[in-house]
Specification:
The complex is a heterodimer.
Chain A lengths: L18 E2 L13 H8 L17 H11 L3 E6 L8
Chain B lengths: L6 E6 H4 L5 H10 L14 E5 L5 E5 L5 H17 L2 H4 L25 E12 L5 E3 L11 E7 L1 H5 L11 E3 L2 H11 L16 E13 L3 E13 L10 E13 L4 E14 L13 E9 L5 H4 L8 H5 L4
Antiparallel strand pairs in B: 2-3, 4-5, 4-6, 4-12, 7-8, 8-9, 9-10, 10-11, 11-12
Classes of the chains: A alpha+beta, B alpha+beta.
């Protein structure tokens, strides 16, 4: 699964703005390119909005919290952990 | 809504549907009330709204659609409100300790180990040979995918030379290099990726070079390349990655701790996996960035995707 799709509506015009100088697969990565490439690959803040939700990672702990608070549980269960697979 | 009206929890269905313990039994009891019964051990993934005592309120496989997710949460609340108030009030349900835990499906970062965040993104080549973020036809395939690299205490400590001198060079510890190459230089931008089998790691070279030594810090450069290919002949292979790497590792001598693990890998990737269809045609640029996890968030405690086979991941099965 691809969790970042959840925040599509939050993205606008952020993609494709950063450019990195010439680089081919056969060439070593140059030190002066490093920071730009890293920034190009890493997610923008808008791509991680879903991480601001205080997710529990234990269903049993969530049960305890829900019982104490009088709330239902939202379980997001995927093949590939939603918080850290793909 | 997820935050205000619910207790939100996430899980990897691969573990939850297999574990033979009270938590696994609870999950299956809830899932069996919905359409996904996991026949033959198949997936039960989706969005579940449920009560603490295990009544399924609503289920939907929302996939990638935030609107579907939002609507599901709303409908779940409607079902919740239909329950008698005695069942909804705080403390109405008692939840005991879970008791035994099926250790076969528990993954814990080894004590003293490090978590490195890993991000993967498709890239595009510009006409002048430069690169920008990539475009593709697969829904969501343009966004950064996430995973985590685990290093044990012994592994990250082995990265730091005992008597470093600027210019000293050595090969990266084999276990670390193999883990990075086989389990993290993968295309997970469209779903669960296949990992590289040992023989598909056709060649790799990762070198550590001492760049800076002061009484406070040691900085190492990590540089190299890898050729990953499903066929012995990359030209004939259905999937592959021809990739170059560069990175920097910082060590705080007073704290005896890594304070930097920045690594990028860029190269040409090609081919689909069983759960990563719709790859772009031919060879196209793919980038992977590694960065030391700074916090202790729930996301950072999630095990690496490849840790389902923990012995293979940690290289302890030989």
């Amino acid at each position: 699964m691809k969790l970042t799709k959840m925040c599509w509506p939050l993205l606008s015009g952020l993609l494709g703005l950063a450019l990195v100088p010439a680089l081919s697969a056969a060439e070593p990565i140059k030190a002066e390119q490093f920071a730009q490439i890293q920034a190009l690959i890493k997610p923008d803040p808008a791509e991680g909005k879903w991480t601001q939700i205080p997710w529990q990672t234990s269903l049993w702990d969530a049960r305890k919290l829900a019982a104490a608070a009088g709330k239902p549980i939202l379980l997001w269960e995927m093949d590939g952990h939603p918080l850290g697979c793909t | 809504m997820a935050n205000r009206d619910y207790v939100p929890v996430t899980g990897d269905d691969w573990y939850e549907r297999r574990r033979q313990d009270p938590e696994g039994e609870f999950f299956r009891k809830v899932a069996d009330q919905g359409p996904r019964h996991g026949r033959g051990g198949s997936t039960r993934q989706g969005i579940y709204c449920l009560t603490a005592d295990g009544k399924l309120l609503i289920y939907k496989n929302a996939g990638q659609n935030p609107e579907v997710m939002r609507e599901t949460l709303k409908r779940g609340l409607v079902e919740w409100q239909k329950l008698p108030i005695e069942r909804r009030r705080p403390g109405a349900v008692e939840v005991d300790e879970p008791g035994r835990v099926d250790e076969r499906f528990q993954r814990q970062l080894p004590e003293g180990g490090l978590v490195i965040n890993v991000y993967t993104r498709i890239l595009d080549r510009l006409q002048d040979g430069g690169m920008c973020r990539g475009k593709c036809k697969a829904e969501g395939g343009e966004f950064a995918a996430r995973d985590h690299l685990w290093l044990t205490a012994a592994e990250w400590q082995a990265l730091i030379p005992a008597s470093p001198k600027v210019g000293d060079q050595s090969s990266a510890p084999p276990r670390v290099a193999q883990r990075i190459v086989r389990f993290h230089l993968v295309d997970n931008t469209r779903g669960e990726p296949p990992f590289w089998k040992p023989h598909e790691d056709r060649s790799h070279e990762l070198t550590l070079k001492v760049e800076e030594v002061t009484p406070q810090r040691i900085v190492l450069r990590l540089q190299g390349s890898a050729l990953l290919s499903t066929d012995d002949d990359p030209a004939k292979s259905s999937r592959g990655f021809d990739v170059r790497l560069l990175g920097y590792i910082g060590y705080d001598r007073a704290k005896r701790a890594l304070d930097r693990f920045d690594l990028v890998a860029v190269g040409d990737h090609w081919g689909n996996g069983p759960h990563t269809r719709l790859a772009r045609p031919g060879r196209s640029p793919l980038g992977v960035a590694f960065e030391l996890a700074r916090g202790d968030s729930a996301a950072e405690r999630v095990p690496p995707q490849a840790a389902r086979d923990i012995r293979a991941y940690l290289g302890t099965n030989r």
